[in-house]
Amino acid sequence: MKFKVSVIGAGNVGATTAQRIFEKKYADVVLVDVVEDMPQGKALDILESGPVLGTDSKITGSNGYEETANSDVVIITAGIARKPGMSRDDLLLTNMKIVGSVTKEVVKHSPESIIIVVSNPLDAMVQHAYNISGFDSKRVIGMAGILDTARFSTFIAEELDVSVESVNAYVLGGHGDTMVPVIGATNVGGVPVEKMIEKNKLESIVQRTRDGGAEIVALLKTGSAFYAPSAAIVQMVEAILLDKKQILPCAVLLNGEYGFNDVYAGVPVKLGAEGIEEVIEVDLNTEEQNALSKSVDSVIELLEIMAKNANS
Ligand code: APR
To answer: Does some domain include residue 312?
Structure first.
């Protein structure tokens, strides 16, 4: 039996994610967007790559949700993306409305699904989707930590001229300027990264990681990153569909873990068929714990702005 995955928003992130999942061969894909004919066109184009790739999966495009019914996983990428000079927070009120309306449709048509939220500002959007969905929080998850960690790992591997596969890194906290690369939990082939890269260089790598999204936005000029984000989404989808129980950094609702309650933040979790099967608590030093608090505070600020605008 094939799995069914729906991707809402057929822009850069959504279409690339749909393509990557189609190419995995284990899931049929439905691509939804408000723009007439566009998701249908992209889906047909991807479908026609099937004979070349040897993929019999189905992929369809739609402007509605009927076709998404009973999806195993639904990925929400709908919304607007950043332009140069914009922060993720500038997207807040626009994407709040979009994510809210999309979530209602997802719940109606796929009540048993696991939702992965990608729209920014990520932590606030996933919390909004959770509130609207009425789902158990283990089935509403945000994608950010894998991407931030991948950026951090890329820069470390580049600096040391080692395989990216030798780098084990963690970036926690919110998906924003306050994200927390956990140096103490980062090693290269088992050797603590602090022993391999001198302090100043490591600090500049941390800063480049924090600015990773903005660096791409400044280069693209018309939108934000989508190749690495879509790869990160697919790692989550695969962990869920194949019940891998993989430990991955994801945005999840904290219920006392790391000292926070009722707020989404990026932490390592065990991801499997049930969604979030466990929140993993890594040891943080005081500086890292404070940085995580600051990061969570900035998410709470956005939640407060959303609450004030809830009825507007
Ligand atoms: N329902 C479905 N699709 C929608 C809706 C809606 N209510 N509103 C907007 N969309 C679609 C747009 O028509 C567009 O095709 O969402 C798509 C977004 O695509 P892009 O503008 O290419 O943005 P993208 O780069 O894919 O980023 C999407 O993910 O990483 C985040 O910050 C990013 O919030 C942004 C989101």
So the answer is: no
Beta strands, E only, the chain? 3-8, 27-32, 59-62, 73-76, 114-117, 140-142, 167-168, 171-172, 180-181, 187-188, 191-192, 246-255, 261-272, 275-279
Over residues 172-180, mean pLDDT: 86
175: annotated active-site residue: yes
**Residue among 17, 30, 32, 33 to mutate when testing ligand 1 (max atoms within 8 A of CB):** 33
Cβ–Cβ under 8 Å, residues 30 and 62: yes
User: What atom in ligand 1 is closest to the CA of residue 32?
Assistant: 2
Distance 12 CA to ligand 1 centre (A): 8
Look at residue 1 in the predicted model and tell me its pLDDT.
Answer: 59
Whether this prediction's pTM lies above 0.85 is answered by yes
Q: Is the dihedral of CA 173, 177, 183, 184 positive or negative?
A: negative
> If you average pLDDT over residues 247-273, what whole number do you get?
96
Q: Is residue 41 part of a domain?
A: yes
Same domain, 124 and 170: no
| 259 belongs to a structural domain | yes
Q: Which residues line ligand 1 (CB under 6 A)?
A: 8-14, 32-35, 77-82, 91, 95, 98, 101-102, 118-120, 223-224, 226, 229
Q: Which 3 state secondary structure label does DSSP give 37?
A: coil
Residue owning the nearest CA to atom 30 of ligand 1: 119
Q: 42, 175, 210, 270: which one is catalytic?
A: 175
E strand or H helix at 308 = helix 286-308
Task: Tell me the pLDDT tens digit for each residue of 123-132.
Answer: 999 999 999 9
What integer pLDDT is reported at residue 61 of this predicted model?
98
